[in-house]
Structures are given as structure tokens and as C-alpha cells.
Amino acid sequence: MKKYLFLFAASIMILSCLLGKTLVTASGEERESGYDRYYTNIEIRPGDSLWSIAERYRANSGMEVRQYISELKEINGLVSDSIEAGDSLTVVYYARQPGMIPSEQ
After folding, report:
1. How much is the pTM?
2. Are 69 and 81 in contact (CB under 8 A)?
3. Which residues form the LysM domain (predicted)?
């Protein structure tokens, strides 16, 4: 009985090591691009739309415009595509350092 318990415990440890290595490798591959995720608040200007904001800030994200818009809506709790000048919007951007917003580079 002890032999089987030992084999079971050893198997679990080996599987954990293999799975852990796979997860570490996967997260390392994701960050190879050198871009980190940051957030900032912007004031919506006259003529802005979610589409134009997505075009400005989605650089280095690997997302299509529609995917980025969906993320913007989720982050800001928006249920429609309607935004108004003067309102504030939280946007996500991808850069090597904070403050290096793609639209301002």
C-alpha cells in the first residue's frame, strides 16, 4: 500500500512540475513582445468615436479594432457605442513603459 501511495505522490509531483513549466513558458512567450498593459483616462473630444479611439490606442495590442472596442466597453461599463464629448473614458494601451501612449508617439 505504501508503495502505491509513494508512486501516486511521485506521479503528482512530476505532473505538477511539467504543468508548471508549461505555464511559465506560455506566460514568457506572451511577454516576449516587450509591451505591457497600462490604463489611462482620456477626455472624449468632439468627433471622437469608439472606433477612432480604438484606432489611436490599440497599437501593440494584437487586437482587431472590434476586439479593442469590446474591451473598452467592458472596462467602462458601456452598453452602447454612444459616447459624448467632454465625458471621461478609461482606455488601455500597450507600451514598453508607462506613459508611452501610442497615439502620442
Report:
1. 0.64
2. yes
3. 40-91
Q: Which amino acid is at 4?
A: Y
Q: How far apart are CA 63 and CA 45, in angstroms?
A: 23
Reported as a single tens digit per residue, the pLDDT across 30-61 is 444 688 999 999 999 999 999 999 999 999 98
In DSSP notation, the chain reads -HHHHHHHHHHHHHHHHHHHHHHHHHHHHHGGG--EEEEEEEEPPTT--HHHHHHHH-TTS---HHHHHHHHHHHHT-SSS---TT-EEEEEEEESSTT--GGG-
Residue at 47: amino acid letter: G
Cα 96 to its chain centre, rounded Å, is 14
